[in-house]
Design a protein that fits this description.
Blueprint: H1 2-13, H2 24-35, E1 47-49, E2 55-57, E3 64-66, E4 78-80, H3 82-92, E5 103-107, E6 114-115, E7 130-131, E8 136-140, E9 160-162, E10 170-174
Parallel strand pairs: 1-3
Antiparallel strand pairs: 1-2, 3-4, 4-5, 5-8, 6-7, 8-10, 9-10
Amino acid sequence: MKVTSYILSSILLCSGYTTTVYADDNADSLIKDALSAAPLALRDKVTVVDWNQKVLKKGTNNYTCFPTPPHLTGKAPMCLDGPWMAWADAWTNKKPFQANAMGISYMLAGDEGASNINPYAKGKTSDNQWVKEGPHLMIITPDKALLDSLPTDPHNGGPYVMWKGSPYVHIMIPVATQK
């Protein structure tokens, strides 16, 4: 989820679309990386956007996929649906957020780690439950009472609640082994 903070910050701090020109092989590499976050069934339908807000591939559904941020090592691409894009705007700008619909985000290539309790932590500390998550889904829901039935322990072996008590609370659903 540290990746989430870099991704969402980059996405939402940029405005408009850039005129950056990429070599075809670089654009292809960015598209391939971004698509690795999405399920196979969605890959031909999503829009892919780079970190300068340039559309690299126009899609036909409401998912937008982003490649791994250029300042990170490893893989950390992400695909966000409409409700998650609204969440990202609120989180990045430290605004209140209340989901008005279910939202699903895919990070099927995993991420480089984040605090499970502090939405703005920049690194691991002795008390912030740092977790490097393997491939996973993230879900937001308008009904936060639904979150009470899930644990907050990221090492519990199944879905868990991240950032409970914050406006940016969401469900993490690991689909493979954590890093």
